[in-house]
C-alpha cells in the first residue's frame, strides 16, 4: 500500500533507513546461515546478506529483475564508512553549458572603429595573464592533490578479501536501460564497473542460483551478466528462466540427431527444482513504515557533514531531517545547518542557518496564512535587513518579494492589472526615535523621503501616455514621470511637477503656472498640453502620492504582523494530523471509540432482550415439566402484574424527579427575588446558567413522563401477546385469548 516502494530507490532507501547494520563475524568468510526477510524485519537489524535478501525481495515484488550478490568489496563499502563521501543533499546538479551562438555578420553592417592599440603590448599583457592563470591552476592542482593525499584511506591489509553482499538489477524489466548495483547499506546505486566492487562468487534469486566462472582479476569491470551463458555462469537448478546460449555446432547436432532430445529429458528427470518458499509474506505496518529508523532516529556521518533523520511526529517541532555542514574534516567548526520539517501547521518545510553570517532562511509550502514562501533575516527585530518572498498568485496585490532594511524597502510585483512591477521606498531618520511597536500607526511610521514605481508597457495606451516610471520626491516636493519609448525613438517623454503651497504669504490662491511643470515631449510636431490639463494631472498625482504613503504604511504594518505571527508560530510549533490518521487524530479517535461503545451497548441491549422473561417466575413454581392450565394462567398473571408494577414504579420515579427539580427551581427563583439588588454580575450569570440547566432538565423529564404514559399500555399489550404466543404457554392459553 506504499507508493514509495514501487521504485528501486524508494525500496533501497527504506531498507537502509529501517535496518541497523551489523558487521559480519568474520570479514573474510560468508555467514553460516541466511536470515529470512521477515526475520530481518522483525529484529530490525542484520548484516549485508540480510539487507540484500530483504531488498531483493522487495525489488522482485515491484517487478525488477533483481539478484542477491555474494562477492568482495572495499573496506568502505563493507563497513558502511561514508566519511569520505559527499552527502547526497550537497551534490550540485551539473549545469549544461550552452555554446554561445555566433551572430551572423550583416553585409551592410557598420564597421567597428579601428583598433589603435599596440599589438605587442596586447601580446605581452595576454602572456602575463596566461602565466598568472597557469600559476593559479598549478597551485590549485597541488592543493587538490595535497587534500586528496591527506584524505586517502590507509592501506587495507584485507583488500580483495572482504566479503560483502549487495543487489544486482539487470536491464529489461521495469524499463531499466542498463544493469547496475545497489549497496543495501547506503541505498546508493553504482555501475557494474565501479571500483568499489572487487569480485563476484555467486548470485541468486527466488528461482535459481548461479556461480560465476569468469575471472575477477580486474574486479567487476570485465564481467558479463548474461546468466543464460553456461560458459560464464554455472546454474545449480534446471528450472532456470534464463535461456541457454547454444553454440552453432550444438545447434546443428540438435537438428540432425533426434536422440539428443531424449537424453536431455533423462537429464532433466534426474535434476530437481527450487522448493517452495516457507518464508511468510512481507508485511509492513503503517506505523513501522512511518517510523523507518530504529527508535525513530538515525545518524549518518559524511565528509565534512552529519545527517540526522527522525520519524514523523517524533519531534514536537515536526523536524524530520537535519544536515550539519562543517568547515574542517574533524567536524568541530559548524558552517551551516539545514533543517527539514513535515506536518507543521505554519507550513514551514525547511530552515537554513549560516553560522558565519548568522543569516536564517525559512522556506514555506503553499498555504501559509500570509502567502509566505521564504523569509531571510538576521534578527526578528523590526526595521532590520530581511527579505520576504510570497506566492504571488495567492495574494490580491500580486506581491512577489519584499526586501527591507532600516533605510529602504523594495517590493516586486507580478500579474497586476495596473502593470506595476517595482516599488522602491526610501525612508528618513526619525526626529525622535521612539520604541518600535508591533501595533504600527501612521503617526509613528518612518518618514518617507522618496517613492519610485516602475510599470510594464500597457499595449492599450500610446507610448507617450503610458508611464514607465514615476518618482515622488516627497521632501523636495517634486514628482517626476518617465514614459515608455515610442517605436523608432531612443529617448522617452518626461515630465516634472513642482508642488507649491496652495496659498502664498499674502493669502492669495496660487494658480498653476508653466514653471510648475517641466516637460520634454518626444517629437517636435507634438504640441504641449494646456495648463488646465497639467493642473488636473498634478492633482491626480498628489492624490496618488497620498495613497502610496498609505500603501507603504500598510506594507510596514504587514511586515510587523508577519513577524508577530512567526514568533507565535515558532513558540507554539503546532503539528497537523490528517483526518485519515486514526492513530494520531484525537477527534477521529474519540469518534471511533464512541461508535464502538454505542455498538457494544446495542449488542448488550440485544442480549438483554433475548433473555428469558419467564425465568424468574418458573424458578418460583419449581418443576415445570408438566404444567397445568391453572399454573399457566397464574404464570401469565404474575408476569403481567410484575411488568405492570415496573411500569408504575418507573412513572413514579420520573414524576418524583420532575417535582423535585420544579421545587428546587422555585426556591432558587424566590432567593433571586430576595437578593436581586445585592447580587453581582457573576452571581446573576450563575443564576441564569442554573435556570437554563434546570428548565432543560424539567423539559426532558416532562417529555419522558408523557412518552412513558403513551408507551406503557402498548408495551403491556405487546407482552400479553408475546405470552400467549410463547410455546410453553400457548397450548394452555389458546382457549382464553
Automatic annotation (TrEMBL):
The residue ranges of the CEP76/DRC7 peptidase-like domain are 163-236
Major place of residence: cytoplasm
Q: Might you report a single GO cellular component term? A: motile cilium
Q: Where does it reside?
A: Cytoplasm, Cytoskeleton, Flagellum axoneme
| Pfam families documented for this protein | CEPT76_peptidase, DRC7_C, MORN_DRC7
- What keywords sit in the KW lines? Cell projection, Cilium, Coiled coil, Cytoplasm, Cytoskeleton, Differentiation, Flagellum, Spermatogenesis
Coiled-coil regions, chain positions: 125-152
> Per the database record, which ranges form the Dynein regulatory complex subunit 7 C-terminal domain?
625-732
**Where in the numbering of this chain does the Dynein regulatory complex subunit 7 MORN domain appear?**
294-578
Q: Which GO terms describe its biological process?
A: cell differentiation; flagellated sperm motility; spermatogenesis
Q: Which protein family is named in the record?
A: Belongs to the DRC7 family.
Please identify the protein, giving its name as recorded: Dynein regulatory complex subunit 7
Origin species:
Chelydra serpentina
